[in-house]
Amino acid sequence: MRLLTLAIVALSASAGLSSAQATRANAPPGEHRGYIEGDVYLALRSGQVSKIAASTVRLVAADSAMAANGECADSAKDRSSDYRVQDQLSAAFMKHLVAGTVRSSPTGMEAHYRIDSIPAGRYVLWAEARLSIPYHWLVPITVDSVGRQKVDLDNSNVSLGTMYCLVTR
After folding, report:
1. What is the mean pLDDT of residues 2-22?
2. Mean pLDDT within 124-144
3. Secondary element (H or E) of residue 6
4. Residue 79 and which of 3, 109, 120, 157 are 20 to 30 A apart at CA?
5. Number of independent structural domains in the chain
6. Which structural domain range is residue 131 located in?
């Protein structure tokens, strides 16, 4: 097994945050809000670019992603070689990520997404795609104030394999 590199980056970027410090979906009125947009695509070995249309990009509060990983990792101790357990952990981890989603956006025909009205704070962008194998993105981001951030989900920040507890097989 190998650690899911992007998830470790997400874990490191949000380490040390308490629940009170992490972002909440319900920002106070008048709080600065920003937006994130980008494209989701993969450059294939053949040289072709595969646009990941008809997918969903989710914005997950950093504290929710950390809590999901902690609970999942506790359940995985000494049982990670059993593939049935891994599949259960994968489903449970993703269920927690879905529950922690504060905003989401579909990717259109051109594989573009845009998430609006984001309160300042720390988040993890999460997306999935299945071509011949599963691809996952867990990308840490910080929204500081009103303004645009461009974050493409591509080969530079993707991981391969079945994801559970920030680990792939």
Report:
1. 32
2. 88
3. helix 5-14
4. 157
5. 1
6. 2-19+37-168
